[in-house]
Amino acid sequence: MTSTTILILAKAPLPGRVKTRLCPPATSEQAAHIAAAALLETVRAVRSVSGAHAVVALEGDLETGISAVELCAVTADIPVLPQRGSSLGERIAAAHADAAALAPGRPVLQIGMDTPQVSAELLEQCRDRLLGTAAEAVLGPADDGGWWLLGLRDPLKAAVVSGVTTSRSDTGFRTRQALIDHGLHVATAPGLRDVDTMADARAVAETMPGTMFAAAVGTVG
């Protein structure tokens, strides 16, 4: 089995700085708790992937945010790198490059903290789709037209998507086209709903009964 890096692009869960689109009806404190729960669920899923090495590219400081003790504990043996770049596209490309520098030659699957329903089994399926076919990239579409996963055999190729505008209904299409335009064969991973709004959070929480994420979402009236 080829060793793979799973890169999590994340923000420290600080009230007023994260998941602001959940407000209202959530308060900034509730939104930060939801974000912290989403990140914890995501890291735990990644840690369960066989043959994978987790890396976190972080904006902010986990030690000063919500659930600091839990987040610092779950990432204690994981490289946590600062995000670099001004736009999200630039930060994505830089995070792939930084992950590649840690482990040259290792493929990278990159996700965010907006899909806490992700499972180790799904991530293994995405990895196998990238490495078990002729694909050089794999893209997982999000329900809002964006994407939740970008996998690359050569993570330095993430530079080709650095100029793609994010948070648009056609971001997924434009990202795929940028990869294709640069000669990459792109496979498609299963789609997921990412958590941007409170409606998203509630819909995703319904699929995750009994989890920290569902509990955090349930505090919002």
UniProtKB/TrEMBL annotation:
Per its UniProt entry, which superkingdom is the organism in? Bacteria
Name of the protein: DUF2064 domain-containing protein
Give the source species: Amycolatopsis halotolerans
Q: Where are the transmembrane segments?
A: none
